[in-house]
Amino acid sequence: MGPPLAGAPRVLERQLLQAAVDGDLRRFKGMVTALDAGKGCPREAVEAVKHDGAGALHLAARQGRTPVCAYLVEELRVDVNAMDDSGITPLGHAVGAGTVDSVRYLLDHGANPDKTDVTNDDLELQTARRHKAEQEVGTLKEERKKLECSFATLNEEKKKLECSVASLKEEKKKLEYYVADLLKLAHVQKDKMKEIVDICGE
């Protein structure tokens, strides 16, 4: 769903433009029928509705709502090169917003690329956004590498710890055997001492 249109004129007109922004073709067609009110002039009814100087085709193109653009251009015959109050065509809106599918559709259906009138501010904003996105992707890749290195280090430490535990277990076994041998030897020595005492006592 697209952003809400604040301050758009009248309810039906606002709903028409909002449907264009949202890409809700079924609701958009319903609003066209309601606005035309049986006069048989749906194109004129749609072209008369604007928001901040931009019509339904400009708004749909900016949001990448290609099915709505197709309905406006192919069925209602709305002028594909119509300029808004700022002198920007639907193609200019699509280019400025980077909605590739709408740009391709409009060019395939007669949009004049020489009339896009994309301002330098739009191009600079797109470049800045792309640069920021590339930086964020680069940062994420660096963080991923750091995490992978950390995991590798942890795995190495885990292996070392497992080896240490295994070594300790072996040492424990050896110590247990040694203690057992000492106990046996002590028991033997005790028996011998008892024998000597018994002999001396006789």
Task: Tell me what you see in this structure.
With 202 residues, the chain is mainly alpha-helical. The chain is built from eight helices and no strands. The protein has helices spanning 11-22, 25-36, 42-47, 56-63, 66-75, 90-97, 100-108, 120-201. Helix 1 packs antiparallel against helix 2 and helix 1 (11-22) runs parallel beside helix 4. The chain is rod-shaped and about 140 Å long. The model has no long low-confidence stretch (mean pLDDT 84).
Runs in which pLDDT lies below 50 for 5 or more consecutive residues are none
Category by helix and strand content: mainly alpha
Average pLDDT score: 84
Largest sheet: none
Residues in β-strands, percent: under 5%
- How many individual β-strands? 0
SSE pattern, N- to C-terminal: HHHHHHHH
Radius of gyration: 41 Å
Morphology = rod-shaped
What topology does this entry show?
Blueprint: H1 11-22, H2 25-36, H3 42-47, H4 56-63, H5 66-75, H6 90-97, H7 100-108, H8 120-201
